[in-house]
Write a structure and sequence with these properties.
Blueprint lengths: L6 E8 L11 E10 L7 E9 L2 E13 L2 E9 L1 H8 L9 E10 L2 E10 L7 E7 L11 E5 L4 H4 L4 H16 L2
Antiparallel strand pairs: 1-8, 1-9, 2-3, 2-6, 3-4, 4-5, 6-7, 7-8
Length: 177
């Protein structure tokens, strides 16, 4: 039986490396998304996810929206498979690199991303939560810059690449009006 649908919320935030209080445990890893060439308009990417002493590799294919739902297929790869697929990188799309911190606050699971690349988004931080509560709010110890959940430039992109490039364009425009 279907349960309640979660509501995604995204914010641009400003947080120092020590922004999370000492009593908030978090996991941190480095992500690199390499976008692959496709013929059908789907988003295909390979991801390297690294923590000290551990690196994993994944392949994700995200299809087009059908009746408001999006088909997503993801699987874990070996290093050999990752390298083979990465050779098919789309030269028209830059890789996305970011540091991610995942933590719990007020019984919600948050993802705090700090972008490293593309250069236009470097240093930008986003906060994501997927909650059954429509009014989930960012934790009070993070400085909110803007709620971008429903902004046209952000919400109109169903793929991570499009969303990140829209974010980079917006942030670059703010830095250089």
């Amino acid at each position: 039986m279907p349960g309640p649908r979660a509501h995604a919320r995204w914010w641009i935030v400003d947080a120092d490396d020590d922004a999370l209080p000492d009593d908030v445990d978090f996991a941190e890893w480095h992500l690199e998304h390499i976008f692959l060439k496709t013929r059908d308009g789907s988003e295909s990417r390979v991801t390297r996810k690294s923590q000290p002493g551990l690196t994993t590799y994944h392949h994700r294919v995200q299809g087009a929206l059908v009746d408001g739902e999006q088909a997503v297929h993801e699987r874990t790869l070996s290093l050999r498979e990752f390298r083979a697929l990465a050779k098919n990188a789309d030269p028209a799309r830059a890789s996305i690199r970011k540091t991610r911190r995942a933590f719990l606050w007020d019984n919600e699971y948050y993802l705090l991303d700090t972008f490293v690349a593309p250069k236009s988004a470097a240093g930008t931080q986003t906060l994501f939560v997927e909650s059954e509560k429509r009014d989930a709010a960012p934790p009070p110890f993070l400085r909110l810059v803007e709620d971008v959940t429903t902004t046209k430039w952000f919400s109109s992109h169903d793929d991570d690449y499009g969303r990140t490039m829209a974010l980079a364009e917006e942030v670059t425009g703010r830095r250089h009006p």
